[in-house]
Write a structure and sequence with these properties.
Blueprint: H1 21-24, E1 38-40, E2 55-57, E3 64-71, E4 74-81, E5 84-89, E6 92-99, E7 105-109, E8 116-120, E9 123-128, E10 131-132, E11 136-138, E12 152-156, E13 161-165, E14 169-173, E15 181-184, E16 189-191, E17 194-201, E18 204-216, E19 223-232, E20 235-241, H2 245-248, E21 253-258, E22 270-273, E23 278-282, E24 287-295, E25 298-306, H3 313-328, E26 331-334, E27 340-343, E28 349-353
Antiparallel strand pairs: 1-2, 3-4, 3-11, 4-5, 5-6, 6-7, 7-8, 8-9, 9-10, 12-13, 12-20, 13-14, 14-15, 16-17, 17-18, 18-19, 19-20, 21-22, 21-28, 22-23, 23-24, 24-25, 26-27, 27-28
Length: 354
């Protein structure tokens, strides 16, 4: 039996937090644009016996510190990934660079002449290939609308504290018995690989810094996408923020190790955590689909089903191990070099990279 080979994709780099356009459009140097990523989608649950599936574009990876611009009947998103500012329209991302202007802030697309985003006060303007869009309003709050959900929530331990930050308000509770303090959200400023907000609460400074760096909760071990620090009255609180699910979503993960024993040369096992709650990929020979949830402190994968192809015995044995490790997964880690480690309550696990 011949096993079809596949080329391993290039690694991708790693929630989305909704801030005002004014806070977002603070000048940053922009390196060269990354290439687009594509992947192969797994079959839907209703067509699990199908022998093959067609390739579809991978979902757009989430942007940190993102703001959605509503421009008439059109929408665009501006946000950061690493050291780059990006403009996303209909799933296509354009790398932006700052352009000096007398008033406000202006970004232009590096590789698409005639595409730009400009901002003066609370209004933004988008031009795509020379076509000017209607004036834009920035999310998460439209004019006259009630406040949306927090742009990100952060927590820490010993003592337990909680922070909520959105485009309008910062709310900080310094401990279980501490009184909450609130302040209007000021414009963000760059702070390394993240952003910082210098607010005034009850006539005293309150500084919040959120760095786009994987942060594991010191009690549960659950990874989060933001490392958050709060400073007030000479004290400093450290913790984690953002939604853990955003670390799993995006482009597919390619398995490179099972239980510390590697994988068969030229074989391919993948997984993708889809935003609709499905997990899908290739188990080694067959395509599979199932469900995934993050419930409190645990990851859960269940309802797995696969297509019914037959491959070489060694490949089928590896496939069983992949599916067994997915079913037994109860937590995950993101290693310092960006790999995903799926772990269960016992020994062994899967190691995958984008």
């Amino acid at each position: 039996m011949i096993v079809r080979e596949a080329v391993r994709p290039m690694r991708a780099v790693p929630v989305a937090a909704l801030f005002s356009a004014t806070a977002l459009l603070a000048g940053c140097a922009v390196p060269a644009a990354p290439g687009p990523a594509t992947s192969v989608a797994a079959p839907s649950a209703s067509a699990i016996s199908a022998p093959a599936v067609a390739p579809t574009p991978a979902p757009v990876r989430p942007l940190a510190f993102a703001s959605t611009l509503s421009c008439g009947d059109r929408t665009a998103t501006v946000g950061a990934r690493g050291n780059q500012w990006l403009l996303s329209i209909d799933g296509r991302e354009r790398v932006l660079r700052t352009v000096p202007v007398p008033v406000g802030v202006r970004y232009e697309a590096v590789d698409e002449p005639g595409t730009s985003v400009s901002n003066i006060g609370d209004r933004a303007r988008v031009v795509v290939r020379g076509e000017a869009w209607p004036d834009c309003r920035s999310g998460p709050q439209a004019a006259g609308a009630p406040p949306g959900p927090p742009s990100f929530v952060a927590r820490g331990n010993e003592p337990a504290w909680r922070l909520e930050l959105d485009g309008a308000r910062i709310r900080f509770v310094p401990g279980l018995d501490g009184a909450a303090v609130e302040a209007p959200t000021p414009a963000a400023r760059p702070a390394g690989a993240g952003r910082s907000w210098d607010a005034t609460a009850q006539d005293r400074p309150l500084r919040v810094t959120a760095i786009e760096r994987v942060c594991a909760d010191t009690m549960s071990g659950m990874p989060h996408p933001l490392e958050v620090t709060v400073e007030r009255d000479g004290r400093r609180w450290r913790g984690c923020g953002g939604e853990p699910a955003t670390l799993l979503g995006g482009t597919e993960w390619v398995v490179e190790d099972i239980d510390g024993g590697g994988i068969i040369d030229r074989s391919r096992a993948t997984l993708r955590f889809l935003p609709d709650g499905r997990i899908a990929g290739r188990a080694s020979c067959n395509d599979y689909v199932g469900r995934w949830t993050l419930d409190g402190e645990r990851l859960r994968v269940d309802g797995l089903g696969s297509t019914l192809k037959a491959c070489a015995p060694a490949l089928m044995a590896q496939e069983r191990r992949v599916l067994d490790r997915l079913r037994s997964a109860s937590r995950f880690e993101i290693t310092p070099d960006g790999a995903l480690r799926l772990l269960g309550d016992g020994p062994g696990g899967l190691l995958a990279r984008r």
